[in-house]
Amino acid sequence: MKRLLILMSTVFIIMFGCEQQTANKDEHQAKHVKESEQVNDFQVSITHDDELNVYAIITYVGDANEIDIYHGGSIFYFNIHQEDGDFEYVGAMNQPLLTTTLIRNEPHQVAFNHLKELHLKKGIYRIKAIADISLDPDDVVGTTIQIPVSKIIEIK
Prior knowledge:
- There is one protein chain.
- The protein has one helix at residues 2-31; strands at residues 36-39, 42-48, 54-60, 66-71, 76-82, 88-90, 98-103, 108-112, 123-133, 145-155.
- With 156 residues, it is an alpha+beta fold.
- The protein has two domains: 1-31; 34-155, Immunoglobulin-like.
- The strands form three sheets. A four-stranded antiparallel sheet has the order 1-2-3-8, with no helix packed on it. Strands 6-5-9-10 form a four-stranded antiparallel sheet, with no helix packed on it.
- The longest helix is centred in the N-terminal third of the chain and has 30 residues, at 2-31.
- It is globular and about 45 Å long.
């Protein structure tokens, strides 16, 4: 009887410890993940599909019918960090200044097409998309607006 009590206590402690570790991991991830963010007149979000194609979306929600934004080669740059390993990918922005016209309340989607090329191992990854835009073509650097969003995905 005493052995049974010790065995049951040990199993209970192990189960409770595993649950606590999982809960802490989920809580940590939830605290640092924002899949959607609004800054001023811009709503930014990140999503992915079943085939692990990642998309960042920016929507102008201001008063004007449309607005021009100025950015490098893409509106977004993407970073990837492996939560349970040491993989790190830091995206770079191309240099040419481009203009994109956003129509009020019409989402503009940008795909991150390089995820499969990275040959990610099994694991948990944080994909971060940063909208890097300006509203002033004469002072792009001095008037930069950065809006980061991120999403946790699992590679199986």
